[in-house]
Amino acid sequence: MRRWLRSFAIICLFLTIFFNSRSITEAENSSDKNYRVLCLLSYNYAYDIVPDETDGIEAGLLSEEYDLNISLTYESMDTKNFFTSSDIQEFYDYLAYKMGKTEKYDLLIVADDTALRFALNYRDTLFKDMPIVFMGINSISEAESAAVLENVTGVAEIPDFESNYELMKNLFPERDTIVAIVDGTNTGQGEYVQFMNFISKYPDQKYKILNTSRYSKNGVREYLGNLDENDIILYLDFVEDGDGNIYSLEAATKFISQSVNNVPIFRTSSADIENGVLGGVSYSFYDAGKEAGDMAARILMGTPPKDISMVSDTVTITYFEQSALDKYGIKIKNLPEGTYVINEHETFGKWYRENVLLTNLVGLVCILLITIIVILSITNRRREKTINTDPLTGIANRLYIGKLARPLAAHKERHALIIVDVDYFKQINDTKGHQAGDEVLIDIARLLQRVSKEYGATAARIGGDEFVILVKEPYTDKCEEIAGKVREALKNGIRVKKDIITPTLSMGGAIYPIDTENPGRLMTMADQALYRVKKDGRNGFRMYSPDLFNN
After folding, report:
1. Is 254 exposed, middle or buried (0-12, 13-18, 19+ CB in 10 A)?
2. Domain that holds residue 77
């Protein structure tokens, strides 16, 4: 009997140790796991709201609070330019091909209405069993319908009509008619429904609806020109007119402000609060993106999506623009507390608000002022570097390339993009380990940076194993020279500890305005050239051409 009890105790002890050690090992493996997240954008990277959305997503998803190992991949549907059913099918084929060549993603983030519809349409095929987090959804009914589905949650885009209405009444009590500007796009109609739901609570309030999709360009201009001192504009959305013209945010805003005569313009979105817009309590795409990124991180940490409620509260920041405030004689003191004033005058009042701890002693003021100026200068330089730098490789990131490309596009200056993709990088990670993979990416980044500087170009890492080179004043031979020099430098391989790894690169380039007169499509065309190189066997370079996929 004693021997039996002793044997039973030993077996119990063995099982306890086995299962405890197993759970510890699983916990350790879980903390080391590299999560793959796909972020599907409705619009291309040059669209004004997208940088704010992606910056916010990364701030929430990559927060130190969660300390997750995440590989974040962006894909753009570019639906402002490609919106037909055949375009959507082409994008599906492209994405299905890419996803078929990579490991399965652990989570999907979608930004704006079209991306959400795409994700839900292919939820049982392309994104099967994948948690989905959405953001920026104008149609509240669609957001609510999506949120009740299994494995789906997110952030709805709720403009703060109440606060804007209160501001209008306080700042312009004599103006009694609200003119809401919308268009016929999905986004515009979603905001139209939200506005009508709001205005129905104020039956005595006069209002007009300008749907730009129902007017010609001249018709829109004439309508705006006929507004008078009784009107105030609530600018919700203006992407298209009845002639089929498509407007960027900046172009639409300038068109409105140049067409009206002394009519204040309020905006419910933080994108493009300038170019004649007075301001408003604006939806913050950065904060909404951060909220969505935080949700995604919590799901990856193990929280079921059904336990994370959809965010339907307004996510706002109050913005006003100084020159528009001056035009209408509005003082900053009459604005809500915490208002951010763009291009604010450098006044003593502003200086005093930013330095409330200073005393009236002249000597101490001077000393503290110098100290503050030095600290702010150092902090801003560090912050600017952090914002514009890829944390792994130390070279520029997607945000910085966007900052460089936007003024080139605005001034219609000739420039090119070369997209660089590391061939079979997943195999390097799988066979040599993630640390070796990181070292390969760092060495390739330094190589791209060195070669780019020789040609006055700029290299950046835009995500995962993808890089881009922005070339100013390019020509085809110059792009080919850069690509050739990069490939030649890689022939000797990269030393990682005691091993020599010899990666190859696939590269595709496109030139504005030779290959396209729309700078927003330049990245897409360079990506198509890259896709052609990969289809031809990788390890090469190709410039975009219209017959790229012939034969």
Report:
1. middle
2. 31-157+287-313
% of the chain exceeding 90 in pLDDT: 58
| Residues 115 and 189 grouped into a single domain | no
The answer to whether the CB of 458 falls within 8 A of the CB of 522 is: no
Burial 355-369 (b: 16+ CB within 10 A, else e): eeebeeeeeeeeeee
pLDDT one-digit tens code per residue, 317-367:
888 999 999 999 999 888 988 888 888 887 666 555 556 666 566 667 778
Three-state DSSP at 380 gives helix
The phi, psi pair for 10, rounded to 5°, reads -65, -40
* Largest Cα span, the chain: 103
| C-beta separation of 178 from 232 below 8 A | yes
Whole-number Å distance between alpha carbons of 380 and 549: 47
* pLDDT attached to residue 26: 36
- Listed range (55-69, 337-351, 432-446) with the worst mean pLDDT: 337-351
User: DSSP characters for 157-197?
Assistant: ----HHHHHHHHHHH-TT--EEEEEE-SSHHHHHHHHHHHH
3-state secondary structure of 146: helix
Phi, psi of 487 (to 5 degrees): -65, -40
Q: What's the domain count of the chain?
A: 4
In a domain? residue 473: yes
Q: How many beta carbons lie within 10 A of that of residue 274, not counting itself? A: 18
305 and 432 co-located in one domain: no
CA dist., res. 109 & res. 107, Å (int): 7
405 and 538 both lie in a single domain: yes
Q: How many helices (H) and strands (E) does the chain have?
A: 18, 20
Q: 330, 358, 385: which is the final residue of a domain? A: 385
pTM of the shown model: 0.52
8 A C-beta contact, residue 343 and residue 277: no
User: What mean pLDDT is reported for the chain?
Assistant: 87
